[in-house]
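Handoff note, outgoing to incoming analyst
You'll be picking up this chain. Sequence as last confirmed:
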Amino acid sequence: MGKFRFFVLLATLLLPGSLIAQHGTADNGYYPIVYQGDTWTGIVSSLDPTTKEISLLYTHKQKTVIFSGVLAKGYRLQSKGNKDTQQIVASGIAVGARLRVYYIPNQTSDEGGGASPFKAFNNNLLGESRDSKRRVNLIFLIEFLPEENDSRAGTVVSTNDSTREITLAVTQGAKRGNFIGVVVEGYRVKMKDGSFRDLVVSQIPAGTKITANYFDEMTGPERTTAEVHRIYRVQFLAFPETP
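Most recent structure output, in case you need it:
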């Protein structure tokens, strides 16, 4: 498979609505010789295109668990021929995506232990690590999982640049209330000329109608004290009329 472009394109994926057990065991298949079957399922909360480090979070019963790993030099994407999945693959990995990663824990390099640890693929995916002492979860396979839409549509009441918060007035049936979400770091919006720039929430005028796609995360010393709605996509529906 050709090089996979690893970059943040936050406006292309929908948020998963339900989570499954975060740590699991892989099904039978052709895997690297040293692989012991470890998988981890969660929502992408951060990624670094330069170091290829990726973090997944799993929230359950008011507790958030974070998994961190590094993509192997020649990591693979698992696709079952689904058209939507192919489109997602073409767009890149994004914050808010739900993934299952297959990884080898406690690795000090991309060597994986042995002269040809990825022999099952008939391909050596190895590459020397600059820091041989650091131990990481080495991810060699990524599976995109079905996406569902968890979102709130409403009218912007206020914004706060220091906290990156957006407050929306929302109506659900006969109920009215406010929804407060925090925009993830690095979220970018596409400009008319095709370029991208960081979203400055204070530049969204009050009265603007938007849809905010989000995932929930627990925060605090042990990530058990408060729930935060992390907004990873903003869809502009209508701007307020100017006099």
